[in-house]
């Protein structure tokens, strides 16, 4: 891949000359905040069956079950009408139980 050269004598960074260390990533979070974020990502269409099987095998059965319960019971509709911090507070006891059980 060759850089695009400008019509001026100024050097243009092509992205190929510079290298930097990969940013250190910490995560995913396994506390209640992390579980809340993961829970939110599971709503809607949810994972395809093959992915759901993988997630269950990887230890996310409790979180998938909570997602299904919130959707089926209609509680999700109530929670989505609340400010995020209130919805989080409502879910906190269940998120804590999941974390403590290790069944996220």
List keywords for this structure.
globular; 104 residues; 4 helices; mainly alpha; single chain
Radius of gyration: 21 Å
What structural class results from the helix and strand content?
mainly alpha
Strand portion, in percent?
Answer: under 5%
Oligomer: single chain
Roughly what is the average pLDDT, rounded to an integer?
Answer: 83
Terminus-to-terminus distance:
44 Å
Q: What is the approximate shape?
A: globular
Please trace the helix and strand order, writing H or E for each element: HHHH
Number of strand elements: 0
Residue stretches low in confidence (pLDDT < 50, at least 5 long) are none
Number of helices: 4
Helix content: 55-70%
Mind summarizing the main beta sheet? Answer: none
Describe this structure in words.
The protein is mainly alpha-helical and 104 residues long. It has a domain at 32-101. It has helices spanning 32-41, 49-73, 75-80, 84-101. Helix 1 packs across helix 2 and helix 1 (32-41) packs across helix 4 (84-101). The protein is globular.
Short description:
The protein has a domain at 32-101.
């Amino acid at each position: 891949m060759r850089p695009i050269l400008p019509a001026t004598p100024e050097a243009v960074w092509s992205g190929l000359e510079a290298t930097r260390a990969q940013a250190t990533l910490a995560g995913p979070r396994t506390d209640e905040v992390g579980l809340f974020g993961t829970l939110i990502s599971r709503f809607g269409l949810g994972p395809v069956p093959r992915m759901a099987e993988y997630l269950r095998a990887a230890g996310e059965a409790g979180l998938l079950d909570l997602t299904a319960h919130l959707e089926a019971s209609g509680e999700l509709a109530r929670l989505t009408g609340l400010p995020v911090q209130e919805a989080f507070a409502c879910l906190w006891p269940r998120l804590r139980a999941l974390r403590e059980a290790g069944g996220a």
